[in-house]
Amino acid sequence: MERAIFAGGCFWCMIQPFDELDGIESIFSGYTAGHTENPTYKEVKSHQTGHTEAVEIIFDPEKISFDDLLTIYWQQTDPTDAFGQFEDRGDNYRPVIFYFNEEQHQTALASKAALQATGRFTEPIVTAIEPAQPFYLAEEEHQEYYKKNPENFARNHARRAAFLADHWDQDHA
């Protein structure tokens, strides 16, 4: 099994796209890239810990590749917005691909360059690519949020869903 960590705004919205894919062993909401051990949701939201909301994916590379995960990742975010995602603003919502080894690093860089070269977005692709740091699980109420709170999830996901439909439908491919 291998690990991937992606940040793309609110972690509630980042679980569902990966959750039921063949080859995904597990996926968790959590916090990474900060300076406090074991941060809480309240602490991260206060912008005092330096953490970014993210998802950790444990996957079987024989069934789904890191490159496949990146393709899905790009289609969940606004890669031109470095200061948050959709209604979620601030450093704790910044888009980041965290890598665990040089192969993941190079794959992420190539994927980012390929996306920029498509011309799909007129603005530069600003998603950060950084070395993985300790990942701290979010509290239980944040795990599988979309399943536990479908109405609230739909409300929180509406702006993201509209952007994704506008930028990733087949007419733009």
Structure description:
It is a single chain. The protein is an alpha+beta fold and 173 residues long. It has a single domain (2-172), classed as Peptide Methionine Sulfoxide Reductase, Chain A, CATH 3.30.1060.10. It has 6 helices and 8 strands. The strands form 2 sheets. It has a 6-stranded mixed beta sheet with strand order 7-6-1-3-2-8, covered by helices on one side. It has a two-stranded antiparallel sheet with strand order 4-5. β6, α4 (102-118) and β7 (128-131) form a beta-alpha-beta unit. α3 (66-74) packs parallel to α4 (102-118). The chain is globular and about 40 Å long.
Report the span from N to C terminus: 31 Å
Taken as a percent bin, the fraction of beta residues is 15-25%
Binned, the helix content reads: 25-40%
Number of helices: 6
CATH A-level architecture: 2-Layer Sandwich
Task: Give, in order, the helices and strands.
Answer: EHEHEHEEEHEEHH
State the major sheet: 6 strands, mixed
CATH topology heading: Peptide Methionine Sulfoxide Reductase, Chain A
What is the number of domains?
A: 1
Give, in spatial order, the strands making up the sheet with the most strands: 7-6-1-3-2-8
Shape: globular
Q: Which CATH class is shown?
A: Alpha Beta
CATH homology superfamily name:
Peptide methionine sulphoxide reductase MsrA
Please compute the radius of gyration using only Cα atoms.
15 Å
Structural class: alpha+beta
Outline the low-pLDDT stretches: none
**How confident is the prediction overall: mean pLDDT?**
92
Number of strands: 8
EC number: 1.8.4.11
InterPro entries: Met_Sox_Rdtase_MsrA_dom (IPR002569), Met_Sox_Rdtase_MsrA_sf (IPR036509)
Family: Belongs to the MsrA Met sulfoxide reductase family.
Pfam families: PMSR
